[in-house]
Amino acid sequence: MSSPFLEATALSCERDWRLLFENLDISLDSGQMLQVSGPNGSGKTSLLRVLAGLRPATSGTVRVKGQPLVSRSADLLWIGHAAGIKGLLSAEENLAWLCALHRPASRAQIWQALEAVGLRGFEDVPCHTLSAGQQRRVALARLYLDSPPLWILDEPFTALDKQAVSQLEDHLAEHCREGGLVVLTTHHSLSRVPDGYRDLDLGQHGA
Ligand SMILES: Nc1ncnc2c1ncn2[C@@H]1O[C@H](COP(=O)(O)OP(=O)(O)OP(=O)(O)O)[C@@H](O)[C@H]1O
């Protein structure tokens, strides 16, 4: 039997001597979406960072395709709750830089991705002059470029208007339908979820 794409076993996480969650098991395969929910401070971001290999768990293991997770794994795309873009660079430059680190993209592909997130005409202005929602769209444009199957997204809907929220929901569901996987946190209640949707409430499963 093949291993799940993402498998976390007996995960526990402590921060500042506080136990956020313990003994958490997660198994996720192609087509599935996991929404990590729970109150502020319950450990959602901490869990996502552990699953993305950006911080160690206090105990437990994370495996991707049966292998121990390595930091900067090429199998996953992480977008944190801060837009994570450089204000002095343009939208195009930000994406070119991020893509160069992971999966190179041509100028035409980057412009297409920016168009997909409604940023046509804003490709070459410095990002610090964009609104918060536009800056979020720059970060999310990576979801419209060649990307790994597993997307780990911390509060991706922050600052987006209604139309952009709806578009992103559709895009995430489509990614799952096409065999991708999504792990996300959001306080927004999703109105369209794929068949393989699951919720993990750290308010109930946390420590
Ligand atoms: N860099 C840090 N150093 C120490 N403690 C931290 C750090 N980041 C977060 N924490 C603590 O870990 C706990 C969980 O934080 P986390 O950001 O994972 O929660 P969250 O569920 O994502 O919250 P929110 O819904 O507010 O985004 C909080 O009590 C927080 O104070």
UniProtKB/TrEMBL annotation:
Keywords: ATP-binding, Cytochrome c-type biogenesis, Membrane, Nucleotide-binding, Translocase, Transport. Residues 6-202 form the ABC transporter domain. GO terms for biological process: cytochrome complex assembly. SUPFAM superfamilies: P-loop containing nucleoside triphosphate hydrolases (SSF52540). It comes from the Bacteria. InterPro entries: AAA+_ATPase (IPR003593), ABC_transporter-like_ATP-bd (IPR003439), ABC_transporter-like_CS (IPR017871), ABC_transptr_haem_export_CcmA (IPR005895), P-loop_NTPase (IPR027417). One of its GO terms (molecular function) is transmembrane transporter activity. The keyword Transit peptide does not apply. This is Heme exporter protein A. It comes from Phytopseudomonas argentinensis.
